[in-house]
Amino acid sequence: MVTLEQYFRELVDDKRRKTTDRLLLALLTVLSFPYAIIMRLRALAYGAGALRSHRLARPVVSVGNLTVGGTGKTPAVAFISRWFQSRGKRVAVLSRGYGGSSGGESRIVADGKNVLLSPEEAGDEPYLLASSIPGLMVVIGADRYGAGLLALEQLDPDIFILDDGFQHLRLARDLNLLLLDCAKPFGSGRTLPAGILREPKSAVDRADLVIYTRCDGREPVDRTDKPFYAASHRLTVAIPAAGGAPHSFAGFGRERVTAFAGIADPASFFDALEREGVLLVATLAFPDHTPYGEEEIAAICRLRDASRSASLITTGKDAVKLAPYLERLGVVYIAALEMEIRNCNSLEMELEKLLLKQR
């Protein structure tokens, strides 16, 4: 059964051809014009100082995108966090905490020593970052400037990384990184609700650097005139969710596997597993940020049994919400994902400049 999220993606990508679908898209296109104007005026107001951006007392690197979901912000945030940590810096990630139960309140997810909130409270992506990167500080809040002030008061970081921050103009940034999909950076070119663009394409002008994601050896299409880097997302190993040594994908052999995911672009995850040689006999896609409960777990178990799968595999973002259900699910693997950036020496030079500013 096609989810509402999948239907929307297919509709705005012009893959739905029925008359009713075309009429709906035409209506959404009309609605997208006032939305685009509002977003453009908002950006202009911040640029002119009519709306105020607030600056924190430490450097801020913003990592964001122009589209709704699916460009790999979390691996990019992890990559940059680890880079600064390797230089001995105390890193704090500021995130909205989308999908969590904190209601926009500023809260500390991780203080650099311990993870203080559950995935249900923090949201799956902040919790994944906090639990997978030792020493990382993570603070959530609808007002990221307020979250940053909380971090300065209680955690004393050296540098901030603003997760999904391209549209959060209330917080000033020292480096503005924009992620674009390598093959289709602007979707259909239409803004919400008729496309996947959060803002008109002209918003690219605010970026300092562009990182094209999921290039996998390809050259980016529809390049901007901004300095850019090509990145690939690579599945590295399969980690048993119940604990134990990592499992190479080659080690699956001809084992029957069911994959499931509740992310923005589950199809790309399933494709990546098959490129690694995993024999996927069934797949199950849930909406992004799905809060796993009895209904979802039952659906996974039914599909596992019907497909006679020996094991299940999912993403790290999904796995953080599965702890209460691991015994029922049986053998579950987490596909570890890393970002690789080609020729990133000049990117590192830009990051080094922030370290000089911080001194």
Q: What is the CA-CA span between the terminal residues? A: 55 Å
**SSE order, as H and E?**
HHEHEEHHEHEEEEEHEHEHHEH
- What is the molecular shape? globular
How many discrete domains? 2
Which CATH class of the largest domain is shown? Alpha Beta
- Class inferred from helices and paired strands: alpha/beta
Write a concise synopsis of the structure shown.
The protein has 359 residues and is an alpha/beta fold.
What would you note in describing this structure?
The protein has 359 residues and is α/β, with parallel strands linked by helices. It folds into 2 domains: 60-232 and 340-358, Rossmann fold; 233-338, Rossmann fold, CATH 3.40.50. The chain has helices spanning 4-12, 19-48, 73-86, 119-122, 124-132, 144-154, 266-275, 294-306, 316-319, 326-329, 345-358; strands at residues 60-65, 91-95, 107-111, 137-140, 159-163, 175-181, 209-213, 228-240, 257-261, 280-285, 311-315, 332-341. The chain has a 12-stranded mixed sheet with strand order 3-4-2-5-1-6-7-8-12-11-9-10, sandwiched between helices.
Present the secondary structure layout.
Elements: H1 4-12, H2 19-48, E1 60-65, H3 73-86, E2 91-95, E3 107-111, H4 119-122, H5 124-132, E4 137-140, H6 144-154, E5 159-163, E6 175-181, E7 209-213, E8 228-240, E9 257-261, H7 266-275, E10 280-285, H8 294-306, E11 311-315, H9 316-319, H10 326-329, E12 332-341, H11 345-358
Parallel strand pairs: 1-5, 1-6, 2-4, 2-5, 6-7, 7-8, 9-10, 9-11, 11-12
Antiparallel strand pairs: 3-4, 8-12
